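so my prof wants the structure for this chain in the tokens format not the other one, which i didnt know existed until like an hour ago. anyway here's the sequence
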Amino acid sequence: MAEVATAYVSLIPSFRGGKKAIEKGLTGAMVPAGRTGGQRAGVAAAAALGSGLRKGSLAVTAAVVGTMGVALKKGFSRLANIEDATAKLRGLGHSAKTVETIMTNALNAVRGTAFGLDEAATVAAGVVAAGIKPGKELENTLKLVADAATIAGTSMGEMGAIFNKVAAANRLSMEEVNQLSDRGVPIMQMLAKEFGVTAAEARKMVSEGEVDFKRFRKVMQDNLAGAALESGNTTRGAFANLGAALSRFGAALLSGVFPYIKDVFNQLIVWIDNLTEKAGPFASTVGEKIANAFRTVVPLVKAFINGLQGGTAGG
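here's what i got, hopefully its the right format
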């Protein structure tokens, strides 16, 4: 059959109103989903923020508690050391006014350094006992102890013990020279420079007792003065100063309580001593009862054992 004509049918759909229908459908599905997702995201964010704040708060609280603990410990040690030094000074016969002067010298000697008043007070007690007079002489000596301790990287107490030996004997010996040299203080080179001699000649001077405390102190002054103050500008010095600040803070917190702590200890001592006195007779009574019990039981045990042995032998 022959093709007479070709017909075309239009299949283009009509979207009249379709756009609005699609938008409505999408909006109906997306808005609730977005609202729910947003709410969940908001809740999650709030929970995370709250958790972070709680953790941060706990961390801060823990840090504060830890810092307070360190401060109180250092404060107690500071107060106890100062009290010990003060008691030692009174024991050496110094008046209240002299003790006050010595404590002022100790404070001035370490102000601005990485060392604390408690260390300086302890050293001061020993230095004064070795013959150094309270006042400017003591203050300068304590500063030199701090300077030498800084160079040696040691405590004021350890360095103060070396100074005390020289002051007490009024001469520098090879023992102190070796102690200083071992701690990184080039004392022999310093002596040689001071007296314009060789190291060997300086050693001979020391061995013959020609270097008294006054000359020793001058050598230290000329070579080490200011070292302790300079150390406060270092990171390690700043950290040490932080520790000193915490000890001062702790001491301030405990200042009202500390004087009564020894009273509590004294009361406990009395109570324990009384308990000890009563414990003696009580222990004797208990011991006698135990001894009587053993005296009663032992023969019975022996008889029982003997009976067993006899029965075994007879069987």
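also thought this was worth mentioning. The two ends are 136 Å apart (CA to CA).
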